[in-house]
Write a structure and sequence with these properties.
- With 152 residues, this protein is of the alpha/beta class.
- The protein is built from five helices and seven strands.
- Helix 1 (13-26) links the parallel strand 1 and strand 2 (34-40).
- Helix 1 packs parallel to helix 5 (131-151).
């Protein structure tokens, strides 16, 4: 069975709604054989990262950067995962009020070091989180989960 690890820091209602939509998408009709583990970025586990076949990352864009919690998660798992998780697929969802560019760049830079493969474009939301944004998050979850079953 494939394993999808969803790591998030979702302190706001908008980012939490995005997480819920992503998780709902992973259980879309026709997607079977994927175990989904949802963990808070403040509870890093190298073992969970090594056991996963793919990753979904969720964060607010605080002052244009990833949350301190997600940065802490990366700092905590980086050396333990380095070289052992290469080419695994990942995606991300981000919520900011004015800019997510720095947060996107940070995730791209860190995951490049880990040699992860961006499987889907990031879902990056500025301002209010509406139905279209939640649909994009649902589709992100479904696509990552379906991709894991295709490669299983």
């Amino acid at each position: 069975m494939a394993r999808l690890l969803i790591v998030h820091h979702c302190p706001s209602p908008g980012t939490r709604a995005m997480l819920d939509a992503v998780v709902d998408g992973t259980a879309a009709e026709g997607i079977e054989g994927v175990a989904v583990e949802v963990v808070d970025a403040l509870a890093p586990s190298v073992e969970a990262v090594l056991a996963a076949d793919g990753y979904l990352l969720g964060t607010p864009a605080n002052l244009g950067y990833i949350s301190g919690a997600l940065k802490h998660w990366f700092d905590s798992i980086y050396n333990g995962a380095l070289g052992l998780t290469a080419r695994r697929p990942f995606g991300a969802f981000l919520h900011g009020h004015t800019d997510t560019g720095g947060a996107e760049l940070a995730i791209d830079t860190i995951t490049t070091g880990l040699e992860w493969r961006k499987a889907q474009p990031f879902v990056s939301v500025l301002g209010e989180v509406g139905e279209a944004e939640l649909t994009a998050c649902w589709e992100l979850g479904a696509a990552l989960a379906a991709g894991l079953t295709a490669s299983d």
